[in-house]
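User: I'm putting together a small comparison set for a docking exercise, and I want a reference complex before I start. The sequence is below, and the ligand is guanosine-5'-diphosphate. Could you produce the 3D structure with the ligand included, as structure tokens?
Assistant: Of course. I'll restate your input first, then give the structure tokens for the complex.
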Amino acid sequence: QPVLAVVGRPNVGKSTLVNRLLGRREAVVQDVPGVTRDRVAYDALWNGRRFTLVDTGGWEPDAKGLQASVAAQAELAMHTADAVLLVVDARVGATETEEAVARVLRRSKRPVLLAANKVDDQRGVSDVHSLWSLGLGEPRPVSALHGSGSGDLLDAVLDAFPETPREIFGATGGPRRVALVGKPNVGKSSLLNKLTGEERSVVHDVAGTTVDPVDSLVELDGEVWRFVDTAGLRKRVKTASGTEYYASLRTKAAIEAAEVAIMLIDASEPLSEQDLRVLTMVVEAGRALVIAYNKWDLVDEDRRHQLEKEIDRELVRVRWAERVNVSAKTGRAVAKLAPTLRTALESWDTRIPTGRLNGWLSDLVAANPPPVRGGRQPKILFATQAQSRPPTIVLFTTGFLEAGYRRFLERKFRETFGFVGSPVRISVRVRE
Ligand code: GDP
């Protein structure tokens, strides 16, 4: 999700314009973490595209004077945003302050847009031309008060953003896609057979060749799910030796094609390297995850203790995934899979609104500030959940955040917002 920073000195009508761009009447003020109380992030939506709008606040002279404060704001905007919008009062024209900020912004590698505000009528249009002198390209006339020009301005903003990768999974309905993965003989085809019931007609095996993955539609708990690339499983194709590489490629492709993976692990055997490799594939692909320990009918007390130890030792990095102990043979707990898949997908789909996210983060960081590095205390300026599927949080900071602190934030984030069964990615954008 791209970020637009809006900058401008007091009284140019910036707040009114921000509300206009957000389609709101009243100022919705949301405090943001860090000492800078005057920086506010909002979710914005225009023409079906989402972006984060950051209002950088007015430039008040600070200890080093107005020019320094202006330059600092402009620098910040340049470094944290994908595009910058400078708001100028067209009736006043470009003041020294705006000339100073324009000098900073002209060096920016990011696109800069210039809004000439308070053009409330035809008379005001002539004032706009003088703003070309700022060297920031075309001044765009708007009236934040009346709303004229704000649609065109938003179109220009969207055009200015870099191409953002489209979400792989649109809101295209259809059954949710599941990959059933795990090493050979873990019981994948047995489980699939159990889930479908051998005779169930809902299973839809289109005759395919070996290169065409074939999906199965499976009804679980009153809902149809698409199990991807199950042709090999159902036909119990026994591959010749030396094909492990291809099997792994195929697993990878199935995971990529799915939204959630059921990772099958053989409960009767020690956890293997191969298990961990498949697990890594799921996590790296950013898919939701359910861990199913199969062959639970073979697990005795001793094995059970051993298994708990393995989990503590080897599966800490997927502590967030729910675990179900099943038996494809007896049918034990197989009915738990559907609700568990649903929970995982719900987290995977979730997007926490920027205001809520920052409100939470502000309190958390105030009570647990990031550790000082190199004598400096990094500040977290604001956060936005740039994406769901998987949930991806971008933190804008003034310095590097240690891995331990990032893990702490992730854990708290999961606790607060109830993320279960989905990876959560946290990326940090440090302002240079
Ligand atoms: P795949 O290679 O992952 O598809 O594994 P299969 O479904 O072919 O199963 C491998 C072997 O494990 C077969 O002999 C199955 O009968 C057996 N098996 C699968 N699930 C279970 C289970 O829950 N309990 C027991 N005891 N055996 C199982």
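The CA atoms of residues 291 and 323 lie 5 Å apart. The domain at 176-348 is CATH 3.40.50.300 (Rossmann fold).
User: Thanks, that's exactly what I needed.
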